[in-house]
Write a structure and sequence with these properties.
Length: about 290
C-alpha cells in the first residue's frame, strides 16, 4: 500500500495555492490556480482546487491518479456559513478525504502552529480569527462590500469614491485622484460600467495606488490609509479582548498597514510561525484521522 500524501489548499479571493507533503512533512510540490471561493460557485472552486493540486502533483513528479492518495485540508474563502461548508463537503471529489475550514481558520492554525492565538488577515478581504482552547472566534470576514473593513478591496473602493468626488469638485483633486480616474479614462461613466462586473480583487487592485501616494504624503491617500488603519486597529483590539495570547498580522496589505498602527498595538504583534498552507496541512492530517475513524 502506498503511503498517504497530504494536500494543503489556501483558496482566497484572488488565487488558490496548493502544497503537497509526505507523512514526514517534507514538501514534495506546490501549485497555483485562480479564485477558489465557493460563494462564486462550488463547481468552479473545485475546478481551481484540482488545477492547483494537479500542478503540485506534477512538480512532485507524481501521476494524476495520485489524487486518490491526497488527504486534503481546504482552507477556503467563502465558507464562513454552515450551508457553504456543507455544499463543499457534499461536492464529489477525487481526494482520499477532505476537511474544510475558512481560509482565516487555516491561516490562524498556521500562524501559531496549531496553538492558541489570533490573526488579522488584511489582503483582498479581511478577517479576524482567534483560536483559544479549541474554540474559535471570528471578527468580520463576512465578505465585500458589507464587511472586509481594513482590506485592500475596502481601501480601493474608498479611493474610487473619493476620486469621483474629486472629479465632481466636492473635494480637492490631487495625484491619487488623478491616478485613479486615469484608469477610467477620466470618465465617471466608465467607472460605472467597470463596477457592473468588478470583483473584490478588482477593487483591491487600487490599494497599491493608495499606499504609493500615502508614502508621498498625498492628503487624500493619507486620509484613506488612516481610515483603513483605524478599522484594522478596532479589529485588532477586539481580537486581543478575546484573551488570545498572541496576535499576528497576515495578508498582502498587512506590511503596509502595520506602520500606520499606533505603537501600543504594533508592540503587541508577533510574527506568524507559518502561513495558511501550513494550517491547511494541519487540517489535512485531521482529514486522514477522520477517514480512519
Amino acid at each position: 500500500m502506498k503511503p498517504p500524501l497530504f494536500l494543503g489548499i489556501d483558496g482566497g479571493a484572488t488565487r488558490c495555492r496548493a502544497r503537497i507533503v509526505n507523512d514526514g512533512g517534507a514538501v514534495l510540490g506546490e501549485g497555483e490556480a485562480g479564485t477558489a471561493n465557493p460563494r462564486f460557485g462550488v463547481v468552479e472552486a473545485f475546478a481551481e482546487i484540482e488545477k492547483a493540486a494537479g500542478a503540485a502533483l506534477r512538480m512532485a513528479g507524481l501521476p494524476a491518479d495520485a489524487f486518490s492518495r491526497l488527504h486534503a485540508g481546504l482552507g477556503l474563502a467563502g465558507v464562513g456559513q454552515a450551508k457553504d461548508r456543507a455544499a463543499v463537503l457534499a461536492h464529489p471529489h477525487r481526494f482520499a478525504a477532505i476537511a474544510v475550514a475558512t481560509d482565516a481558520h487555516a491561516a490562524c492554525l498556521g500562524a501559531h502552529a496549531g496553538g492558541d492565538g489570533a490573526i488579522l488577515i488584511l489582503g483582498t478581504g479581511s478577517c479576524g480569527w482567534a483560536l483559544i482552547g479549541g474554540r474559535d472566534r471570528r471578527i468580520g470576514g463576512l465578505g465585500f462590500p458589507i464587511s472586509d473593513q481594513g482590506s485592500g478591496a475596502s481601501l480601493g473602493l474608498e479611493a474610487i469614491r473619493r476620486s469621483l468626488w474629486a472629479h465632481d469638485g466636492v473635494v480637492p483633486k490631487g495625484p491619487l485622484s488623478a491616478a485613479v480616474m486615469a484608469r477610467f479614462g477620466d470618465d465617471p461613466e466608465a467607472a460605472v460600467a467597470w463596477m457592473d462586473s468588478a470583483q473584490p480583487r478588482d477593487y483591491a487592485a487600487f490599494a497599491p495606488l493608495v499606499v504609493e501616494h500615502a508614502a508621498a504624503r498625498d492628503p487624500m491617500a493619507v486620509a484613506l490609509m488612516e481610515r483603513n488603519t483605524a478599522d484594522a486597529a478596532r479589529m485588532t483590539e477586539a481580537l486581543l479582548a478575546t484573551g488570545a495570547p498572541r496576535l499576528a498580522l497576515m495578508g498582502g496589505l498587512a506590511p503596509f498597514v502595520e506602520p500606520w498602527l499606533p505603537p501600543p498595538l504594533r508592540d503587541l504583534l508577533v510574527a506568524p510561525v507559518g502561513d495558511a498552507l501550513d494550517g491547511a496541512l494541519l487540517l489535512a492530517r485531521q482529514a486522514k484521522k477522520g477517514s480512519a475513524a
